[in-house]
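TA notes. Do not distribute before section.
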Amino acid sequence: MKKRWALLLAAFAINVQAAQQSEAEPLFKDGKGYYSYKTPLKISLPKDKVLIQYFYSYGCDVCLSGDDYLKNYAARHQDKVVLQRSPAFEKGNAFSARMNATFAEYGRSELSDLFLFDSAGQKPEHSLTKSNQLIEKWLLKHNVNLRRFQDLFHSAGVEKRVNEDVQRYKTYSPPMIPMAILDGKYILISNTLYNDDYTYAVLDFLVDKLQQEREVK
């Protein structure tokens, strides 16, 4: 009987210890929910708000979901965050940047979001990022003049916008896409941006953390 009680007490002690460790373990930490630059980037930050820089590419499923979650979060927390969205240059590919810039120069910036949506989840043979014919069909569907769009695509105005995006991309040098960077310090990638509730929880944690860090300074 004594041996039995000893075993029960030992098991209880182990359970208590595990519970205490669980309570002490933070819900999010570097490597769990988010990552960090070894050295924070020296960038211009908005006053009293956290800057969320987001890099995406057309034809990227997770980029679409991450984009939606970040836009929703920024809309709900306009007093706390500023969201800046930029096209990526994976392997030197400027397609997303040039298309995004052309939409802007054309005066139809809203088409960029729509193209991101329609280009996600497509099979290679139906990809809006691979076929000029499908791109032209898509543009016509949305009442875009092909000749004007093509002229703008190779214009100086688009080139200027693309160069600005290139410089921003070089500043952050994201090793993967999608990627969101908060205040040039904390990083969110696809293993966080795939789920809305999880993304919002991590963002709440990091925004509060960054605000506390600023107060300490």
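Switch to the second chain here.
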Amino acid sequence: MAQQFQSSRRKRGVILSSRGWQRVQSAEQKSAEQDNGSRAYTLDQLSERTGLSPNTITKVRRRRLAVDRQTLEFYFSAVGLELTPEDYISLDPDTANVSRSQTPLQGQVPLDSPYYIERQPDEQIAYEEVLQPGALIRIKAPQQSGKTSLMTRILASARDKGMREAVVSLQLADSSVLTDFNRFLRWFCAVVTHSLHLPNRVDEYWNEVYGSSYNCTNYFERYLLTEIDNPIVLALDEGDILFKHPILANDFMAMVRAWNEKSRYGNDGSELWQQLRLVVIHSAESLVGLPFNLNHSPFNIGLSIELKNFNQEQVQELIQRYGINNHQRIAPDLMSFLGGIPYLIQLTLHHISNREVSFSQIKEEAISTNSIFSSHLRNLFAKLQQSYPQLIPLLQQVVNASEPIVLDPIDAFNLQCVGLIRSINLHVEPSCMLYQQYFSQVLRRF
């Protein structure tokens, strides 16, 4: 009987391919337009249509864990599609067939990528927090640590709950926009309006008699938040760019903080502002010498998520996803040399999985000009020289020490924000062996 039951169980081991994910998204959107008043399906609605649990649907969409093929068939059938072999990727050990790009991951990890690793419990906390009225989530970490990748998943989770979303990448703001606060806020309102697929009515609500912050707040209060019934998740990406313009940053952050406070007044207007959920993304290094008053900014309120580096278990899982054997043996070496730094781990595994080089070769050439890390290391050193020269003597102390040392807490905080060191109780050491080797060499002449 036990054998019969075992053989009849569905074998788990597939995830959606990029093609499959695009097909099902498009079909789901068309189905919602026809059968749900053009409103995106909620997880509960999809569960009813597919016969799958909300948790299983979430698992299919995130593509982090494998499901069985029949699950995908149910999902596809519910939105009028027939599942084909091109729609999924096998992750079973015996039939692993994850397609690999010829270039390593750069920037945001796509929603449909099998190489995204969740860092729990922080991510689940963020998914739950964005559902709270008036939520404000701050995501910080050194550059290339996965902040924007997490942001896109928070937005996807919110979208699954029927919420609307607007993403403002401050990287798209022209320099002329960033030098004039009034022009910046008009640009900001226009971008949010466009993201929400609403008509641009900035001119109608802008009155030069009032200040720019008031006009922007009024535009949200009288138009955007009243025009849309569902909660709106507003994500501000690349917040570091604002900090290069201290006066603008100070005024803008004070306004964002005021919005969050409006949601807690307990009056009629509070209910309206509770519909707005804010997600602010910025590099941890932007906290080095903040150009604005912390008490007037959103940086000491809301939920703060500081993304950590990968741990050994997460590195092992990523090694498996790249189809590399002996993951239990390789993972400790990767952790020891690269410290779990996400970008460096992904870069290394990409080159190993494409059979370009072995890990032992990578370590031997780690700080040479031909190293796979050479561009990253040069950029890091250039940033240190140009933006944080005051940290160079401190970093010298750390990399030249034979064991973890004690630094002034503020100095340690600044070095850690840039991603160069890690703390061990009250002591600090280089973030990884790679950084120790490289900076101990290049800083000799200083």
